[in-house]
């Protein structure tokens, strides 16, 4: 398909969108390079062999977003919207199609908190850290259930669901969205009423990049107690870890929903290590009482804990995961090359199952397996309420994380990850093997590219991994509201389902 750069740029200029940085033909300008890499998290997608956008458009207002989308549609440019740039597979920063641009929402980061209605309008370009800080400026008694890393963008995070320390109490971020402003595939700006119930359903968890550009979200704030207590407890010793994991699988998904305990398994030699870390919605004495009753093996003592308020908990958790205590800071300095895959567990993994995991994890000192409990309110929300289907019957979600620091290690690292994923097959959910769209994984399959390089016959039943039966409704919604596949990427919702 022929696309002209001049016509796109003159359309943008005529529309008053002037904050556009072009890739220069010979070498990239320093500004282009630093803007492109600013929020891009996975260094694998910053490499020179990866396709780069022709232009970075940074709208200053919602009118600019509308105009940018209209110009791209009119002049047939593939556009990728970027909010926080945290896509595991770099989908907001690169494409399979050489002719694409990025609409980066970093300047649209406003948060308007209304304490009378206990709601807020948050622009997609805000990070979750900016959102938490804006809420905390107004109140210590309300918060919002969203991710732990403060630099995650609201736009992509809410589009894919949003799991957090508050998920067992309040569900996904997307469960707490009550309205949204979207620029759709006709270039129209619509709200919940204007887009209709199907699109409003799809954009709360059906994955970013398929439905249009969400400019802002109206969210419900959630009530929190005056005190919350966060904790982190490390363990070593194989037998001890084995017993603890066994107990954790029984307790963490079923315990009082005010208590959230994640398990971190750290790989490497001479032995793997375990840590439990989490949050309790209540005071330290109440936490110790509850843990003594339900999970005494954890050995939790006051020295492992920090009693604070909700925003204090988010700062503590951010810092203990290596992030800045300044939650408004948009730049994540600890970037790496990484591959992450996800699984959901429906039956506890046996001790012998974990033995095999350890053996593989001993090979990689930069490997981490993160086990995050579900249960609580997640069991009571119907699996068709939103695109995210993994509710009742799912005990916890796993993330297998491997980081490395240079491109030469790509092949070996990716093949190690395949080995681990293959090994865990019998221990995790099946038919289909469940995955979480915010932990995006292109190994599951890709979307046929209509105007691009791959064929239409390519199987795309991977959508069932993320969405189970909800995948079929997502495909119908896509057909109805974006039949020309204007909003597309390597794993956007396809127009039809082709299985293997
Ligand atoms: P990015 O800007 O890369 O967007 C992701 C996708 O959504 C892209 O396809 C993009 O085009 C699309 N998109 C972005 N903005 C859009 C908009 N306004 N309208 C429509 N489409 C849009 N997840 C989780 O559930 N809980 C967690 O605790 C964490 N923690 C975490 C930590 C770290 C360090 C990383 C890198 C990631 C996570 N995640 C996570 C995963 C995270 O939720 C996921 O990567 C989100 O998609 C990131 O959203 P961004 O806006 O940052 O990404």
From TrEMBL:
It comes from the Eukaryota. Pfam families: BBE, FAD_binding_4. Residues 49-224 form the FAD-binding PCMH-type domain. Keywords: FAD, Flavoprotein, Glycoprotein, Signal. Its cofactor is FAD. GO terms for molecular function: FAD binding; oxidoreductase activity. The keyword S-adenosyl-L-methionine does not apply. Belongs to the oxygen-dependent FAD-linked oxidoreductase family. This is FAD-binding PCMH-type domain-containing protein. It comes from Taxus chinensis. The lineage of its organism: Eukaryota, Viridiplantae, Streptophyta, Embryophyta, Tracheophyta.
């Amino acid at each position: 398909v022929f696309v002209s750069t001049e016509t796109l740029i003159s359309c943008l200029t005529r529309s008053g969108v002037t904050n556009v940085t072009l890739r220069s033909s010979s070498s990239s300008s320093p500004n282009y390079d630093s803007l492109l890499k600013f929020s891009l998290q996975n260094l694998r997608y910053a490499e020179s062999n990866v396709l780069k956008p022709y232009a970075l458009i940074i709208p200053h207002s919602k009118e600019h977003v509308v105009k940018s989308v209209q110009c791209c549609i009119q002049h047939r440019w593939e556009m990728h919207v970027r909010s926080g740039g945290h896509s595991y597979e770099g989908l907001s920063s690169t494409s399979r199609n050489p002719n694409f641009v990025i609409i980066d929402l970093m300047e649209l980061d406003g948060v308007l908190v209304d304490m009378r209605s206990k709601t807020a309008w948050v622009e997609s370009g805000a990070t979750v850290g900016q959102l938490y800080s804006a809420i905390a400026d107004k109140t210590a008694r309300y918060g919002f259930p969203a991710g732990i890393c403060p630099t995650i963008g609201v736009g992509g995070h809410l589009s894919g669901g949003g799991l957090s320390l508050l998920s067992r109490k309040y569900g996904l971020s997307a469960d707490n969205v009550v309205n949204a402003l979207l620029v759709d595939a006709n270039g129209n700006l619509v709200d919940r009423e204007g887009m209709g119930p199907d699109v409003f359903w799809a954009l709360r968890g059906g994955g970013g990049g398929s439905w249009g550009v969400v400019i802002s979200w109206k969210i419900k704030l959630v009530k929190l107690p005056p005190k919350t207590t966060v904790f982190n407890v490390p363990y070593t010793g194989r037998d001890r870890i084995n017993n603890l994991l066994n107990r954790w699988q029984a307790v963490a998904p079923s315990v009082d929903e005010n208590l959230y305990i994640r398990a971190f398994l750290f790989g490497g030699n001479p032995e793997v290590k375990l840590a439990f870390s989490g949050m309790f919605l209540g005071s330290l004495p109440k936490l110790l009482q509850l843990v003594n009753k339900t999970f005494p093996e954890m050995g939790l003592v006051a020295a492992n804990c920090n009693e604070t308020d909700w925003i204090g908990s988010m700062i503590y958790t951010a810092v203990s995961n290596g992030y800045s205590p300044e939650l408004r800071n948009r730049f994540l300095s600890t970037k790496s090359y990484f591959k992450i895959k996800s699984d959901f567990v429906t039956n506890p993994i046996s001790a012998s199952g974990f033995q095999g995991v350890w053996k593989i994890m001993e090979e990689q000192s930069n490997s981490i397996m993160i086990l995050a409990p579900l249960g609580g309110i997640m069991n009571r929300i119907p699996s068709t309420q939103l695109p995210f289907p993994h509710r009742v019957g799912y005990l916890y979600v796993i993330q297998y994380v491997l980081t490395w620091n240079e491109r030469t290690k790509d092949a070996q690292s990716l093949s190690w990850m395949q080995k681990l994923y293959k090994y865990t097959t019998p221990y995790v959910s099946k038919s289909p093997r469940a995955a979480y769209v915010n932990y995006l994984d292109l190994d599951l399959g890709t979307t046929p590219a209509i105007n691009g390089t791959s064929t239409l016959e390519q199987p795309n039943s991977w959508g069932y991994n993320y969405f189970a039966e909800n995948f079929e409704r997502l495909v119908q919604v896509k057909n109805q509201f974006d039949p020309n596949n204007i909003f597309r990427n390597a794993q956007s919702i396809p127009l039809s389902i082709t299985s293997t």
